[in-house]
Design a protein that fits this description.
Elements lengths: L19 E2 L1 H4 L3 E2 L2 E6 L2 E4 L11 H5 L7 H7 L3 H8 L3 E5 L12 H16 L7 H25 L3 H26 L7 H14 L5 H13 L21 H8 L10 H28 L3 H47 L15 H8 L2 E2 L3 H7 L5 H6 L8 H14 L6 E2 L1 H24 L2
Subcellular location: Endoplasmic reticulum membrane
Protein name: Acyl-CoA 6-desaturase
Enzyme class: oxidoreductase
Length: 444
């Protein structure tokens, strides 16, 4: 229960002591209609304000009843700027006899990680090389130009069409990695400029929604691979992931699909359909339902540019089919790259770990090479990216050795694989989960 002091009788007027709370009391406030969280031992009531949170009400609510210090620092590069929003929400602080970490989280790992983050700041690893991203944007524009030149010079035959589609799928994938950078605020520290550039890249170059991506992706970073908190592991009963979910489905005799064959039908449902069907529909409907007219206008500019460019060669219907074929190719690229770092890792209910341990449990790396860096948009450094989501990707290789040392110190496994092994592990993990489901399903 909160504790406070009384003003002495007849004495001079003094400011009332700030209330103090125990972890037991704070943890009770983890409901949708009642949310407290702790940052640097200060207790904040975010219940009403969460609906106005720029990152969405869900991502901030995922830490209700917990210490959110490291997540807060990870997502907010300008701490001074956000303090003005936090001050009215302050309701007290942790009692002096309470530990800084809740639920027995490892305080030594937390202390060492914060020292590592301070080292990264001292090394200027959060400073952006703007030329790097400008050149990346330029190479996307060059690919778009080459694609148009091929179809305009060689015509709309099968070979030029296939070559053009492959180039455009490549430019779309690379634009996806670039918007991912802007979305994490790693390029411009002034949010106004970052939002404009992000909306241009994801909206005009890809036809998607910046707000949709932010609200979905930041949840993934806050609680990666946690059911009901990470939208990326919400497979809508199409797949069962990890170890807990397939056993739970099996015990409850849930059989929406033959999950013991999910490693086979993955090739028919996952890579080919995610972007052209599920994401495309979800993005458009989200913008309309939420009345996000700015993002919708950016997306419309993409479609207008695409059809104005390619309708003269293919007609309206042909251009529509061409667009979906491009997204069919891009979808394969996107699914394999994004899943190789997460789907093979621990996927479970909330384990309540410290920030460092939770990110290492949910992510793995792919070996560095020029091709792997380009092919994955530096998401081969998924561990470093999850630990420091606002760090520009060109600095991941600099902090990686220090992350490995911290893992070694605390006997935490730092997983790094060759690219082909990482891709094969996706299928292997689906097969393993499917077998767990079958065993539980058949068990009487």
């Amino acid at each position: 229960m909160g504790k406070g002091g009384n003003q002495g009788e007849g004495g001079p007027e003094r400011e009332a002591p700030i209330p103090t709370f125990s972890w037991e009391e704070i943890q009770k406030h983890n409901l949708r209609t009642d949310k407290w969280l702790v940052v640097d031992r200060k207790v904040y009531n975010i219940t009403k304000w969460s609906s106005r949170h720029p990152g969405g009400h869900r991502v901030i609510g995922h830490y209700a009843g917990e210490d959110a210090t490291d997540a807060f620092r990870a997502f907010h590069p300008n701490l001074h700027f956000v303090q003005k929003f936090m001050k009215p929400l302050l309701i007290g602080e942790l009692a002096p006899d309470e530990p800084s970490q809740d639920r027995g989280k490892n305080s030594q790992i937390t202390e060492d990680f914060r020292a590592l983050r301070k080292t990264a700041e001292d090394m200027n690893l959060f400073k952006t090389n703007h030329l790097f991203f400008l050149l990346h944007l330029a190479h996307i524009v060059v690919m778009e130009s080459i694609a148009w030149f091929i179809v305009s010079y060689f015509g709309n035959g099968w070979i030029p069409t296939l070559v053009t589609a492959f180039i455009l799928a490549t430019s779309q994938a690379q634009a996806g990695w670039l918007q991912h950078d802007y979305g994490h605020l790693s390029v411009y520290k002034k949010s106004r400029w970052n939002h404009i550039v992000h909306k241009f890249v994801i909206g005009h170059l890809k036809g998607a929604s910046a707000n949709w991506w932010n609200h979905r992706h930041f949840q993934h970073h806050a609680k990666p691979n946690i059911f009901h908190k990470d939208p990326d592991v919400n497979m809508l009963h199409v797949f069962v992931l990890g170890e807990w979910q397939p056993i739970e489905y099996g015990r409850k005799k849930l059989r929406y699909l033959p999950y013991n064959h999910q490693h086979e039908y993955f090739f028919l449902i996952g890579p080919p359909l995610l972007i052209p069907m599920y994401f495309q529909y979800q993005i458009i409907m989200t913008m309309i339902v939420r009345k996000d007219w700015v993002d919708l206008a950016w997306a419309i500019s993409y479609y207008a540019r695409f059809f104005m460019t390619y309708s003269p060669f293919y007609g309206i219907l042909g251009a529509l089919l061409f667009l979906n074929f491009i997204r069919f190719l891009e979808s394969h690229w996107f699914v394999w790259v994004t899943q190789m770092n997460h789907i093979v890792m621990e996927i479970d209910r909330e384990p309540y770990r410290d920030w460092f341990s939770s990110q290492l449990a949910a992510t793995c790396n792919v070996e560095q090479s020029f091709f792997n860096d380009w092919f994955s948009g530096h998401l081969n450094f998924q561990i470093e990216h999850h630990l420091f989501p606002t760090m520009p990707r060109h600095n991941f290789h600099k902090i990686a050795p220090l992350v490995k040392s911290l893992c070694a110190k605390h006997s935490i496994k730092y997983q790094e694989k060759p690219l082909l092994r990482a891709l094969m592990d996706i299928v292997g993990s689906l097969k393993k989960s499917g077998q767990l489901w079958l065993d539980a399903y058949l068990h009487k």
